[in-house]
Specification:
The chain has 3 domains: 8-103 and 204-267, Adenylosuccinate Synthetase, Chain A, domain 1 (3-Layer(aba) Sandwich); 107-201, Adenylosuccinate Synthetase, subunit A, domain 2, CATH 1.10.300.10; 269-429, Adenylosuccinate Synthetase, Chain A, domain 3 (Alpha-Beta Complex). Helices cover 34% and strands 20% of the residues. It has helices at 21-29, 81-93, 111-124, 136-145, 157-178, 187-201, 208-217, 251-256, 288-298, 316-326, 365-370, 386-389, 398-411, and strands at residues 8-13, 34-37, 46-50, 53-57, 70-73, 78-79, 100-103, 107-108, 205-206, 222-225, 265-271, 273-276, 310-313, 330-334, 344-353, 356-358, 372-379, 415-419, 427-429. Bound molecules: guanosine-5'-diphosphate (GDP).
């Protein structure tokens, strides 16, 4: 028995994504009965290594690779059915039989959403969020316009036809009249291809809210797997440089139909420094040699593009917001090993905005653009070798323990998991 109020756990990113959620999820996923995604689409990415086999997943929850848990794609996720079928085939090729459920209420990414996404990115100029161009923003917009198509619709040709005519004509108008591009694919082609996808996916499509409710009632354990991070949340993040969904744990309720009241443990994953893909001001960003060292040591290059990521010092203004908005019960602090060898470690504790010290993320883009980091300089810990950290937390150098305690007291949340390397055993549980 654990000491948490329920056996529902959530893992969420507390920065800009790429915090190391995959490794932390790996800790819990194998023992969970259900692993559930509640937002976003195939714009996310996890690399999981199990028994020497590497899995790269974008849409299906990473629990799929352990065999035991059932993976659930909740209604708050947006599904590209072709991408989902490709991912299922990929998993099967690696010898795993997918135990998968997809919410009948999840919205479907259509070909015109992908075309719109590219056209929009060109239109937004300096305020473009750096879209992956997989149709994520347009499909969420269509959901709110009530032009959307849901997974269940792919199983009902008449309703699908009716909704597709509405969605297609709306998107075509936008693409061709407002954005000056051309939508090549015809409604007829989409209709037949997507009905076929629906048929192929029908065995997985169901009411996942009811499934999870009953599972929880019968004592099963559930793990919610967040994608991206709090600063990319469409409401609480640095808008408009965000993703198009709510990354915060609060979205578990609406994105899966499992009441937030039931979630017992909410783990925020914090990387000991920053990395950022895409645009937006980044107050604690660093440049030149220091940045190069951090980037190299942390392997901060895009997984698919190989492009160098922007890097910076840990920003506790951001983490403070992550603790508050997500209601974190604890933090998992990752990649501490990457900071080995630095004599001094600046940690951003507040921003200076035109002479005012602010400790919370500003909504104003003007303030955020002008924000200068106020640093507390902490001492480094030299090289942390295996035979030091594998003696447990108490054996860690005093300066490292101070670094951890300092973060805890600044953001008012306990750090219970400390990660000092990419492998599962390179972890200290406090
Ligand atoms: P996510 O987007 O938050 O899921 O991030 P990933 O799980 O893709 O993690 C980013 C990278 O960091 C992966 O290559 C992990 O193997 C690696 N990683 C995770 N934790 C640690 C750590 O404590 N130290 C080091 N050096 N690498 C880590």
């Amino acid at each position: 028995m654990n000491s948490y109020p329920s056996n529902i756990t959530a893992i969420v990113g507390a920065q800009w994504g790429d915090e190391g959620k995959g490794k932390i999820t790996d800790f819990f996923a194998g023992d969970s009965d259900y692993v559930v995604r509640f937002h976003g689409g195939n714009n996310a990415g996890h690399t999981i290594i199990v028994d020497g086999i590497t899995f790269k997943l974008h849409l299906i929850p990473s629990g799929i690779v352990y065999g035991t848990p059932t993976s659930v794609i909740g209604n708050g996720v947006v599904v590209d059915p072709k991408a989902l079928l490709d991912e299922i085939a990929y998993i099967k090729e690696k010898g795993v039989c997918p135990k998968l459920m997809v919410s009948d209420r999840a919205h479907v990414i259509m070909p015109y959403h992908i075309v719109l996404d590219s056209a929009l990115s060109g239109h937004q100029g300096q305020l473009a969020a750096g879209s992956t161009r997989r149709g994520i923003a347009p499909v969420y917009a269509d959901k709110m316009f009530r032009n959307g198509i849901r997974m269940v619709d792919l199983l009902e040709p008449d309703v699908f036809q009716e909704k597709l005519e509405k969605g297609y004509s709306f998107a075509k108008g936008l693409i061709e009249k407002s954005l000056g591009k051309f939508l090549e694919i015809t409604l007829e082609d989409i209709f037949s291809a997507y009905l076929s996808y629906g048929k192929q996916l029908s065995e997985y499509i169901c009411d996942t809210s009811v499934e999870l409710y009953n599972a929880h009632k019968s004592g099963k354990s559930i793990l919610f797997e967040g994608a991206q991070g709090i600063s990319l949340d469409v409401d609480h993040g640095v808008y408009p440089f965000t993703t198009s969904s709510n990354t915060a744990a609060g979205h578990i309720s609406t994105g899966t139909g499992v009441s937030f009241r039931e979630v017992g443990r909410i783990i925020g994953v914090v990387k000991a420094y920053l990395s950022r893909v895409g645009e937006s001001p980044l107050p604690s960003e660093i440049q030149d040699n220091e940045a190069e060292t951090l980037r190299e040591k942390g392997g901060e290059y895009g997984t698919t593009t190989g492009r160098p990521r922007r890097v910076g010092w840990l920003d506790l203004v951001q983490v403070r917001q992550a603790v508050r908005v997500n209601g974190l019960t604890e933090i998992a602090l990752t990649k501490l090993d990457v900071l080995n060898g630095f004599d001094e470690l600046p940690v951003c504790i507040a921003y200076d905005v035109k002479g005012n010290k602010i400790k919370e993320m500003p909504a104003s883009l003007t303030s955020y653009r002008k924000a200068k980091p106020i640093y507390k300089i902490l001492s480094g810990w030299g090289d942390l070798t295996d035979n030091v950290w594998n003696k447990g937390y108490d054996a860690l150098p005093q300066t490292l323990k101070h670094y951890i305690n300092f973060i805890e007291s600044e953001v008012e949340c306990p750090i219970k998991i400390v990660s000092v390397g990419p492998q599962r055993h390179e972890t200290i549980i406090r």
